[in-house]
Amino acid sequence: MSEDSSFELRPLIGNPEDLLEVQRLLESAPDYAEAIQGAPFDSHEATRTFEELPPGVARSAKTVIGIYSGNELAGVIDLIDGFPVPTTAMLGLLLIAGTHRRRGLGTRAARAVEDLVSSWGTCDRIRIGVVRTNEPALVFWKATGYSATGEQRPWEEGAVRSEVIVMEKLIG
Fold first, then answer.
1. Residue 33 burial (CB count, 10 A)
2. Structural domain count, the chain
């Protein structure tokens, strides 16, 4: 496993260039799409990444962040401040492009998310939901210190019928 030499988080705003880059990244991970919905992402998945919010959450609470290796978008993060409670950050997505996997970038990005959320000074934990059919993600999040809360929710997306396993990690 060789590590990506440079690594930087940059906020994305959802302009046409961001949408194109994020859509390409999402399409570079067909295994992820297959695991969570049973088919490739459609051409609007990047737009949903920027626009979808849980009910009652203000747009200002959501941050989409690019994970850059050099000048190339190598991953994307979807993060919501104060959800489902004010002291929790919800990590909706941390996805590494297929060509950048197995180089330590996901682990480094997960640590950077912890540092970012900790710097806000309002959250003491990060919460994630992992679709059970996405076994590599379950293994990854357990290895980075997340624990299942015992909470599970039904998941139905495309051809996939499963459940979301809620996991959390205390930070700070």
1. 20
2. 1
Q: Six-digit token pair at 34?
A: 């297959």
- Report if residue 168 sits inside a domain: no
* Look-up of token digits 């959390």: 168
Strands (E), 117-159: 125-131, 147-157
Is 28:100 a contact under the CB 8 Å cutoff?
A: no
145 domain-assigned: no
Containing domain of residue 39, as a range?
A: 8-127
Residue 113 has pLDDT above 90, yes or no: yes
- What are φ and ψ of residue 128, in 5° steps? -135, 160
Average pLDDT in the chain: 94
Say which CATH number the domain at 28 has. Answer: 3.40.630.30
Would you say residue 147 lies in a domain? Answer: no
DSSP string, 50-65: HH---TT--GGGEEEE
Q: Which of 61, 81, 94 has the alpha carbon at shortest distance from 121?
A: 81
The pTM of the full predicted model, rounded to 2 decimals, is 0.92
Mean of pLDDT values over 124-152: 97
Residue 4 has pLDDT above 90, yes or no: no
